[in-house]
Protein: F-box domain-containing protein
Amino acid sequence: MAGKKRQPQPILDTCSASQQHESSDADDDVPLATILQRRRLSAKASPKQKNGVGVATVLQRKDTKGSKLPLLSEVSERCIMAFLLVVPDRLRVETVCKRWLRLSREELPVTELDFERVPVRPSLRRDVSKMLERANQQLTRLVLPDITLVDAHVDLIVQQQKLCVFRAHRMQKKHIFNIVQRCPDLKTLELLDCRALTLSKWPRDAVALREVFLNGCNFVTNQAASSLIQVCGSTLKKIIFTDATSLDSRIFRDLSRYCVKLEELTISNCASVNLRDLQLLSEALWGSLRWLDLSSCRGISSFPVCRFKLHILAATCSLLTVCIDRNLRVCLSCRCLFWTKPKSTMKA
Structure:
């Protein structure tokens, strides 16, 4: 009739019908044109459905806004923040959410910084300085990358009053002395690539170290090593001098006198080794020494008889001859001498 308006069919019915037909497409042989037409009808109705879902979601969020949402794990969040705290200008944690902004402003001290284990190590000095600043003077272990330290770095390092382990490359003498004098808890000192380091003495007010590792110490003389042993001898348990071409076996006399707790001794490329000095060392440290490495040391022609708990490594000493007793086992193929503990004393 002319007076009545024609009501359009609801799109929702068409969509539901199209969905029913599409679900049965796998069973019936429907022409491709029909399938495309149904999909077009479904696409026209999808915006309205999406708007409806969006309104419902907004209302749901408004309803739950007053309620307290469950928080994430505090432990995991603090672990993430402790990691991101030392990343310089690479991630801005405050842009993630307000909660991370609050956590980033809290004090989250970092106790260890080991750049040797990081795949992408910082190469800029300012990055290292920024990481040291964010540590909040709580570091106990610091392993620096292969960079040349400046005075600003050392000023930040000496602020770490709890520092126990320190490793660095190519340090200057004044920086080394500053650290060993102002870090009271320092126990382990490792200096790598110190071929240009010239030491004549060790500061007498330095901290008593337990482990000292000098790699490539060509210019460390007997006087400097003797000064170090006299200052730290009562606490030293491990000494490693590699490429020690300026040292000779006279250093064994100071080791025998002062280092009563020494357990491991490594001296490579030593200028000369005297049998009498080596005998004095073995007799004085028979109760504590467990490892002796004299690799590439010149002048070794014999070795004293040892009946104590000693593990000896003399790997490139071609002139070595050994006085063997029942507690020693000789491996001639690798030119190494090892002490084998009897089974009866293993349990003790």
Remarks:
- DSSP finds eleven helices and eleven strands in the chain.
- Residues 10-15, 24-28, 48-72, 315-348 have pLDDT under 50 and may be disordered.
- Residues 196-348 form a domain with the Leucine-rich repeat, LRR (right-handed beta-alpha superhelix) fold (CATH 3.80.10).
